[in-house]
Amino acid sequence: MNGIIGGTSLLSSSIFAGWDEKKIETPYGDTYVKISGSNVFIQRHGTPPVPPHKINYRANIWALKYLNVQKVISVNSVGSLKMKIPPGTFVIPRDFISLWIAASFYDKEMKFIIPEMDAGLFKYVYSLARKVKMKAKSGGIYIQTIGPRLETKAEIRLLKRHGDVVGMTMPSEATLCMEYEIPYASICSVDNYCNGILKEPLTMEEIGKSWQKNMNVIEVFIATLLERNFE
Ligand code: HPA
């Protein structure tokens, strides 16, 4: 089985409209998946959607493992820390910083992984993005913040020295997949410049507008991914 995880931008996507919805009971609570053939889709925020700091990552990844998913490609929305990565770019991160957020299945056992993004799936996602003519950037560091608020200008001044994009979700999912040894790669849609990167103030309207545009591009990417059966 192949897994896709999407965010709020894919909430109303028609791609998954005809897929079978299934409730999966997990040790971490219930989650809902959509299944079509050998493909599973999870809307990470659930329905009705919960904000980023309340996402049940463990239930989501546990469900994918339970369904015997062998690889996961996820779509994550991010802000850009770099002028040379404008909104409309799609970044495939090679590494991440998530120093303050604990994501683990191991609450009782002493088990420590050494994190590493999957090199093969990373290359695959980048090459597919190029094939469908996305403005793709290979590599980059994703910095995770807790949310749900966006970052202060002072926080962004600090973070921009250490990473390329900021989001609230990807490293938690990547870490849990690593614990289960499921290859995971992400394609991040850059929806805005982070707060304070531009002189003009950041607005939610602006983020919403690029979200919509980027979603149309991501839908082409996912449709192609499904056509090719992740190969
Ligand atoms: N910060 C954090 N998460 C985000 C952003 C941002 O600027 N844009 C989209 N997701």
Q: What is the topology?
A:
Layout: E1 2-6, E2 20-26, E3 29-36, E4 39-43, H1 57-66, E5 71-80, E6 90-92, E7 95-97, H2 119-131, E8 136-138, E9 141-144, H3 153-159, E10 165-167, H4 170-179, E11 184-193, H5 204-227
Parallel strand pairs: 1-4, 1-5, 5-11, 6-8, 7-9, 9-10
Antiparallel strand pairs: 2-3, 3-4, 5-10, 6-11
The protein binds hypoxanthine (HPA).
What does this structure look like?
This protein has 231 residues and is of the alpha/beta class. It has a single domain (2-227), classed as Nucleoside phosphorylase domain (Rossmann fold), CATH 3.40.50. Helix content is 28%, strand content 26%. It contains 5 helices and 11 strands; from the N terminus they run ββββαβββαββαβαβα. The chain has helices at 57-66, 119-131, 153-159, 170-179, 204-227, and strands at residues 2-6, 20-26, 29-36, 39-43, 71-80, 90-92, 95-97, 136-138, 141-144, 165-167, 184-193. Strands 1, 2, 3, 4, 5, 6, 7, 8, 9, 10 and 11 form an 11-stranded mixed beta sheet that branches. A hairpin with a 2-residue loop joins strand 2 (20-26) and strand 3. It is globular, with a radius of gyration of 17 Å. It starts with a strand and ends with a helix. Bound molecules: hypoxanthine. Hypoxanthine (HPA) binds at residues 77-79, 145, 150-151, 166-168, 191-192, 194.
